[in-house]
Amino acid sequence: MKTFSDIQKITINSLRKYEKLVSDIPVVVACSGGPDSTALLHILTNTNYFKTTNLIVAHLNHDFRGQEAEDDAEFVKNMASDWNLAYRIGRADPLSYQNEKGISSFEQAARELRYTFLRDVAKDVGARSVILGHTMDDLAETVLGHIIRGTGLQGLIGMEVCSNWPFPYDEEEIMIIRPMLEIAKSETESYCAELGVEFRRDTGNYSHRFTRNRIRHSLLPELAIGYNPGIKDALVRLSRIASENLEFIESRLEEYWKELCFTDANLNCVAINLIRFVEAPINIQRLLLRKAYEEIIGNTTKLQENH
């Protein structure tokens, strides 16, 4: 188990790799009030790495847990005020948004609203990045969820410390930073307990209505007990290996893209030299098609192998 000092060092050292995105400019910190994001906010506020005047706390009330959600928003607001931090509190209705957009998953609807809110806050304050409190557990759950649904190398990565904005997909100016991916959820709770930092517990995180919760509370524990006690570590290693392999493949992909593909922005299409295309390795072919799809559609959310 890491000490609170270890957790602080890991988090700050991770952020130092992306100083251009966080140094001496406004930075948005997403905070639900739970142990992960609260520990993150405490670290950023108490380690002298950031000027507190540059930190903007952002919290979105998803408005589907009644008074509990109201209390979460009030908790974050009061915590930010107590720590002399600027804050933005938003409200959204994922169910209405889901029905309006025809989205199959309530989780996806809530996710899109959350990232839209964070994007808007970041743009409003002139931030180049939003810092999230995702942990090693979130990474393992994401990788396993992608495996269950079916995925390629990109999905096996799950989450990266620094990544492009996931929604809206045309957002190119703001980056996401996840400096706590080497830290376990149990360690963020221990951090808060050791330093006397209060946090909230979201009862929605225990509802088996949501796929991620079933993975977290049922599937992963069953895999740990019946198959591999180190299943979370194994999934995190798989993510790292996938990332290393994809980095090499994408370096080759760019070479093939320049030689084989031509994008016509006016016609919103990608022309591919089929003679050269069929000579390329199969994994390059798949990634070229994925990239072409993304160029035209703007994202790969609905892309499946049978396309």
What does it look like?
Helices cover 55% and strands 11% of the residues. The protein has 307 residues and is an alpha/beta fold. The protein folds into two domains: 4-223, HUPs (Rossmann fold, 3-Layer(aba) Sandwich); 231-297, no CATH class. Strands 3-2-1-4-6-5 form a six-stranded mixed β-sheet, sandwiched between helices. It has a two-stranded antiparallel sheet with strand order 7-8. Helix 3 (35-46) links the parallel strand 1 (27-30) and strand 2. Helix 3 packs across helix 9 and helix 11 crosses helix 13. The termini are far apart. The mean pLDDT is 92.
Short description:
55% of the residues lie in helices and 11% in strands. The chain contains 13 helices and eight strands.
Identify the strand order in the major beta sheet.
3-2-1-4-6-5
Give the count of structural domains: 2
Distance N to C terminus: 45 Å
**What does the main sheet amount to?**
6 strands, mixed
Which CATH-level-2 architecture of the largest domain? 3-Layer(aba) Sandwich
Q: Proportion of β residues? A: 5-15%
Strand count: 8
Main features:
2 domains; two-stranded antiparallel sheet; Rossmann fold; globular; 307 residues; alpha/beta; 8 strands
Draw up the topology in text.
Layout: H1 4-16, H2 19-22, E1 27-30, H3 35-46, E2 55-61, H4 67-82, E3 86-91, H5 94-101, H6 106-125, E4 129-131, H7 136-149, H8 153-157, E5 162-164, E6 175-177, H9 185-195, H10 211-226, H11 231-260, E7 261-264, E8 269-272, H12 274-277, H13 282-297
Parallel strand pairs: 1-2, 1-4, 2-3, 4-6
Antiparallel strand pairs: 5-6, 7-8
Helix pairs in contact: 3-9, 5-6, 7-10, 7-11, 11-13
